[in-house]
Design a protein that fits this description.
By secondary structure, the protein is an alpha/beta fold. It has helices at about 20-35, 40-55, 65-70, 100-110, 115-130, 140-145, 160-170, 180-195, 220-240; strands spanning about 10-15, 35-40, 75-80, 85-90, 95, 135-140, 150-155, 210. Strands 1, 2, 3, 4, 5, 6, 7 and 8 form an 8-stranded mixed beta sheet that branches.
Length: about 240
């Protein structure tokens, strides 16, 4: 893939369940189109990791929402050479690897359910999207809550079995072993929690383009998302009386 430079671009909301490919696909699409990329899940993973480290409770009668909110200023997303916000730092230390561990997998849904934390992170996400240039923002509630007026909304989906297989492959885990079964159970549990939470439940926006990726090669899914963005760019250009690029 080659990177192209564009003077303007769309705000694209890319939603989907855990391990649906939002982050890897979104980053690849952004690189091809010269867009910025933001994986908002990193913010919640960082908050979860930091809450575990600082022993701030996120659920039950002893939950500490103010304590979780107080963690937010310590978290920052960092851009790579292509402008993709794909790394996370806490107090200036890169903790990207730490936020992708199984213990964070187990706890992130509970932390993400806390309304006060979601509110604290909402404006940060919107401010990132408001910066000049096209951006692809990936998450679970981008098209429905964070950026309801996004130029294009895409919901990337796959069966839970397919997603569990992908996560196991990413971590070098045997697909038929106990760890792989644990991943499948974790994803099923998180799907349930994310789709039933009171605040910003996981669901596709009514006007989202739904792309199911079961059986797709990675390149196929990237191409499908690129095609949708180019179509949306052309529609916007025509609507503004400009020549389509």
């Amino acid at each position: 893939m080659t990177t192209t430079t564009r003077s303007a671009g769309l705000v694209v909301a890319l939603d989907g369940p855990g391990s649906s490919g939002k982050s890897s696909v979104g980053a690849a699409v952004a690189l091809e189109l010269g867009y910025r990329f933001c994986d908002t899940g990193l913010l919640y993973r960082a908050a979860t990791w930091l809450a575990l480290e600082r022993r701030v409770r996120a659920q039950g009668d002893r939950a500490d929402p103010p304590g979780l909110v107080a963690l937010v200023p310590q978290i920052a997303l960092m851009a790579d050479a292509q402008g993709r916000l794909s790394h996370v730092s806490v107090d200036g230390i890169d903790v990207t690897e730490e936020v992708h561990t199984p213990r964070v997998d187990d706890a992130v849904s509970a932390v993400s359910r806390v309304p006060e934390l979601r509110a604290a992170l909402l404006e940060r996400q919107r401010s990132l999207a408001a910066e000049p240039g096209g951006i692809i923002m990936a998450g679970r509630d981008i098209g429905t809550v964070v950026l309801p007026d996004a130029h294009l909304k895409i919901f990337l989906d796959a069966s839970v079995e397919e997603r569990a297989k992908r996560r196991a492959e990413e971590r070098g885990i045997a697909p038929d072993g106990r760890e792989a079964r644990s991943i499948l159970d974790q994803l099923r549990r998180r799907d349930g929690l994310d789709s039933t939470r009171t605040v910003a439940p996981l669901r596709a926006a009514e006007d989202a383009v739904h792309i199911v990726t079961d059986g797709n090669r990675f390149e196929d899914t990237v191409a499908a998302v690129v095609a949708e963005i180019k179509r949306a760019e052309a529609r916007r250009a025509i609507g503004a009386g400009e020549p389509a690029r």
